[in-house]
Amino acid sequence: MHGYELRKELTAKLGAIRAAISYGSLYPTLRRLQAAGWITEADETPATAEEVPALTSRRGRVVYKITAEGKERFAQLIAQAGPETYDDTGFGVHFAFFARTDQATRLRILEGRRRKIEERREGLRDVLGRAAERLDAYTLELQRHGLDACEREVRWLEELIANERSGRAPTVPDTGTAGGRRDNDSPPPPGESRKERP
């Protein structure tokens, strides 16, 4: 991909907030990856008017491809399951690549994330229990909102962990209904094809 395509792909995969990557940080990162030997230039393609970001030139775009060393490095990165993978940013990035991650690593990351969110939830409960009467209505509402978000995430993580332990992939929400599940269209568990499912 060239840089513009890569930025669009990252936004689609990670979401606009996690992938709020400026061109001013994207291209230096691509140069660092290239210097490390993890990506290489493939060829140049002519840029179309709608693909050229504002205030940039229309010269041919450099297309990058991952090298064998880059694939090895990527495999190492997604196999990591340390504390950095439980933080908001690290977790989101690792979760986006769970389809390429082995089950044991997915479970370690999910369980670590659950512990982190449970700690955050207990901290919020503590604040609400000890200082609720000293907080103004808006700050109190913000703390309650944070607590609700933690409780929802813990439930979601517990469901994912249960699915992982049983060998099932997460069910895919039906985009036609508000949050409904469409089990027949969800990816089959590892080792099972769609035809084998009832």
UniProtKB/TrEMBL annotation:
An MF annotation (GO) of this entry:
DNA binding
What is the name of the protein in this document? DNA-binding transcriptional regulator, PadR family
**Region (Disordered): which ranges?**
163-198
Gene3D superfamilies (alphabetical): Winged helix-like DNA-binding domain superfamily/Winged helix DNA-binding domain
Record keyword DNA-binding present: yes
Q: Which Pfam families match?
A: PadR
The opening ranks of the lineage are:
Bacteria, Bacillati, Actinomycetota, Actinomycetes, Micromonosporales
The record places domain Transcription regulator PadR N-terminal at 1-75
What keywords appear on the UniProt entry?
Answer: DNA-binding
Cited PANTHER family: CONSERVED PROTEIN, PADR-FAMILY TRANSCRIPTIONAL REGULATOR
Q: Does the keyword Thylakoid apply?
A: no
